[in-house]
Amino acid sequence: MKLLTKEEEDAHYSQVLKGGSIGTVLGLIGGYAGVMAASRRYHTIRNLTIPMKAFLVTSSGTFVGIIGADRSSRAFEASQNQSRQWYENREERLREEGLRGLSFSDRALAWAREERYTIVFSTWVASMIGSFAIVGRNPYLSGPQKLVQARVYAQGATLAVLIASAAFEISERRRVRKDLDAKKIAAGLPVDAEAPKGEEGGDLWKDMVAAEEQRLKKQHRSLYEKHHTDAGSDPESGSTSPQQKAGVEGVQSEQEQEQKGEEKKEKQK
């Protein structure tokens, strides 16, 4: 934990105060506009007492103000620890570099695999709105009946998306299994027997973790070499930036841990 100086504490306080003030003002404006709009449309909101309406407005201001102050605090902390931030964000940079080398279809599949739950939820919301708009045109159904019909259609669409997501996940596991077996055959290693029925994949997760670790090892090395080359630092001059020092220390520590882990595995064997 880094101890802050008096100047850093004052700068942090001013940034938090600024972010919280801006957030509070925006929240009050949004809360007041929301209460006024709801009062015109809904009879219940219109009949609320003035203290209750004031509570709704101030609550929105307090909520947005807290969020603004927290974001300002995090932004200040990130600006004061740029070298550490560079090292901690290496996984994101590695993922972005890996995506740049993929085709459009592969990038779309990777995005869909990572955001599958968001896609399922968005599909449910969109299908609920669309089905309610379609069912709402029927003049022979009451409001509750229209809502039930819309929910049934939305559940059907969501179930179809879930089935498609499960099928995609199964096909992806099989593809990973084939790739791992091909790599083992090329390396002269024994291929695991097929998993029993009802245990699809067997210890597939272990192989996937091992393959991912191997991929990250190579990417960590290539990322450091790329950054070292782009920075134009001369190894003989001995002048390195804090980002490079953090990267060197991180890579060296990871390599030492990996070597120790491999030695322990060999001793156990």
UniProtKB/TrEMBL annotation:
GO terms for biological process: mitochondrial respiratory chain complex IV assembly. Residues 216-269 are annotated as: Disordered. It is found in: Mitochondrion. It comes from the Eukaryota. GO terms for cellular component: mitochondrion. The keyword Membrane applies. Pfam families: HIG_1_N (PF04588). The chain crosses the membrane at residues 20-38, 117-136, 148-168. Residues 216-231, 257-269 have a biased composition (Basic and acidic residues). Keywords: Membrane, Transmembrane, Transmembrane helix. Residues 89-180 form the HIG1 domain. InterPro entries: Hypoxia_induced_domain, Rcf2. This is HIG1 domain-containing protein. It comes from Aspergillus mulundensis. The lineage of its organism: Eukaryota, Fungi, Dikarya, Ascomycota, Pezizomycotina.
